[in-house]
Fold Probable phosphoglycerate mutase GpmB.
Amino acid sequence: MLQVYLVRHGETQWNAERRIQGQSDSALTENGERQAWQVAERARTLGITHIISSDLGRTRRTAEIIAEACGCEIIFDARLRELNMGVLERRKMDTLTEEEEGWRRRLVDGTPDGRIPEGESMLELSNRMHEALNACRELPAGSRPLLVSHGMALGGLVSTILGLPAWAERRLRLRNCSISRVDYQQSPWLASGWVVETAGDISHLDAPALDEIQR
Ligand SMILES: O=C(O)[C@H](O)COP(=O)(O)O
């Protein structure tokens, strides 16, 4: 059975400022670096064989810290990037107009193909995340990869594995440096293929990780 670990990057300056990132970027905060070292210590115990990361700066830095602990090289895969949030990237959440807030909410309010102007839909994001996840099945037998990605990207991936449409309302909180695990398997009581073993585990963190209200 193939086990794939999913880690969201450490807290960034723009997470803390409640500034929308998307495929724009900001550095990890001191707390974010601490989170990354703590998730790395947890990853060291998991027998990780490959680290595959979004190529954005915040995931790259988190992956570097995990790779040092696990003794792995890093493979960068742009399919693991965060949702492209178009014209709202770099904007602070509390500065959005009613119309702009409507664009953001339509991404995840059950509207198929909702998108922020010049951005990606959740369906487009989910499709590329599944491509990146399924590429893990081509790794040598016995591999145990760890993917480093983003909140919307991993939330959409896990939710769609659970059978929800990509554009479903979000009901899964994935905090910074949380660990989730998905398995590709066959078993009598579960659907064949990908299943969710754990989602959003932060038991390895000793400091609170921001939630959606705080970021
Ligand atoms: O700001 C964003 O783009 C999302 O809300 C979270 O993205 P992140 O997981 O890359 O911080």
In short: The first helix runs from residue 13 to 17. The CA atoms of residues 10 and 196 lie 22 Å apart.
